[in-house]
Design brief:
about 100 residues, Fusion Protein Consisting Of Minor Coat Protein, Glycine Rich Linker, Tola, And A His Tag, Chain: A, Domain 2, three-stranded antiparallel sheet, elongated
Length: about 100
Amino acid sequence: MSEKPIGVAVLGLGNVGSEVVRIIEESATEPPSGTYVTVKFTIDSKGRITEIIDVATSSSEQGKESCISAITLTAPYGDWTDDMIAILGNSQEMAIKFYYE
């Protein structure tokens, strides 16, 4: 995979952060402070999450699952433009890192 700095907002993933906050607020406990979750996944040109590739975390199981759910429940993220497909191809691996404060 070649590294391409593609912003979350460019791919329409901007609401993922607010979704993880909503999920956590609805749960009985909060993930431990000072921990992180990195979710690596594949998104296709239709905005669908086609695979969760890897999850690296120092957080709790709830913290991990909240982040995965925030990414998958808010999909699909919308079709890519022709210019985006020309640059990214028909799918792209991405990683989002969440920090719990």
